[in-house]
UniProtKB/TrEMBL annotation:
Annotated GO MF terms: hydrolase activity, acting on carbon-nitrogen (but not peptide) bonds, in linear amides
Keywords (A to Z) from UniProt: Hydrolase
Matching Pfam families: CN_hydrolase
Classification via InterPro entries: Aliph_Amidase/BUP, C-N_Hydrolase, C-N_Hydrolase_sf
Organism this protein belongs to: Candidatus Methanolliviera hydrocarbonicum
Protein name (Swiss-Prot/TrEMBL): Carbon-nitrogen hydrolase family protein
TM segment ranges: none
Domain of life: Archaea
Annotated ranges, domain CN hydrolase: 2-237
Amino acid sequence: MVKVASLQTKVGEKSSESFKSAEKLIEKSVSLGAQILCLPEYFSFSLENFEIASYSEETLQFLSDNSKKYDVLIVGNTIEEIDNRYYNVASLYKDGDLVGKQVKIHPPKGERLLGLSCGRNIEVFETTFGKIGVLVCADVLYPEVCRILGIMGADIVLNPVVSMYKEKDITKDARDSIFVSRSYDNSYFLIKTGGVGKTPFSRSKAVGRSLISAPWGILKRYKDEDREEILIADLDLDLLKEIREENYSLTDRNPEAYYKLLTYSPH
């Protein structure tokens, strides 16, 4: 068994307040036995005195320090400059050391207009808890990316997000089914973590809506989309292995028939 925690922290606050919220929930989740912690996308971001380099450095140090202090694996996001381009990057730390980084594959229009570029590589990281992948926010909406993680054998997939509140949102409840579908199709656990407060760029209301899903359904779901919250779940990797062995949609694919994925665009 592996115990994971989805930390629905405050976002869009002053950096000091965001770090305070994150540290409070980290400490509480560790006291409950959590071994893998997922923070929301842009959990430490603030528009006040914002400067890319200092923001990233402070956030990465925070992740490193807390992973070492509590002997856990933790993931958090920053904006980083790589080869003269800016990317939204999720960084995983364990015991103070960097495990790996996953660049966001599909930054939405708002991020692209601000100069963020699309990632091109999808990674799976070998850890003492199994194989771990990351879907950064909107990447979970793309079945192709989710499938690649399944094919690569990911056991646990972390999904840090920032979700914007919409007054009229008829698909809100239906979207929970996306996460069960991704888990079912690809035979992995999926940990979605949203923040509460303000979205980082538009400053509109951010809602948490965190959850943890398995191939057999939702294990944990948020109670209040507007408040700090911790979701804890025990993940049975042995049971997951049994289910994966029966998932012939991973092993009996016919890739030659999928060429239209690369050649067709919706009209």
